[in-house]
Amino acid sequence: MVKAAGILTIIGGIVGIGVGASVASGAALYGALTGMGMLGAIGAPLIGLGIVALIGGIYAMRRRAWGFALTGAICALFPVVPLGILAIIFVAMGRKEFA
Fold first, then answer.
1. Mapping DSSP to helix (H, G, I), strand (E, B) and coil, where does residue 93 land?
2. Alpha carbons 56 and 36: distance in angstroms, whole number
3. What pLDDT does 28 receive?
4. What's the pLDDT tens digit per position in 38-77?
5. N or C: more exposed end of the chain, with fewer CB within 10 A?
């Protein structure tokens, strides 16, 4: 159960990083065309959430630090909601498997 949560969290993290990077680059291009340069910062929080989800997925796969694995699963919720929901459920159900 926890391995599935780790895999889903890692996938959510990778998707989050990709979505954040594309949003950041698209918003930066749009901001450069319209003169609103700060629009590129919109994707930075998505990249940050993706990185936390990726690291949390690694912790879930190793069955260490349940709190951080749960945090990663919650961060995986934002780019892809169904993956994040399943990851949260699986991490919560596998609480006893963590050291």
1. helix
2. 34
3. 74
4. 767 778 898 999 999 999 999 999 988 889 999 999 999 9
5. C
Residues present in the chain in total: 99
Q: Where are the beta strands (DSSP E) in 1-99?
A: none
Contact partners, residue 49, CB within 8 Å, separation at least 6? 16, 20, 75, 78, 79
Sequence-distant (6+) residues with CB within 8 A of 18 are 50
Q: Which of 30, 39, 43 is nearest to 78 (CA)?
A: 43
DSSP letter at 43 equals S
- DSSP classification of residue 60: H
Q: What's the pTM value of the predicted model, to 2 decimals?
A: 0.85
Structure tokens at 57: 């997925």
CA–CA separation, 2 and 19 (whole Å) = 25
- Domains of the chain, by residue range, sit at 2-16+44-97
SS3 category, 77 = coil
Q: State in Å, rounded, how far the first CA of the chain is from the last one.
A: 15
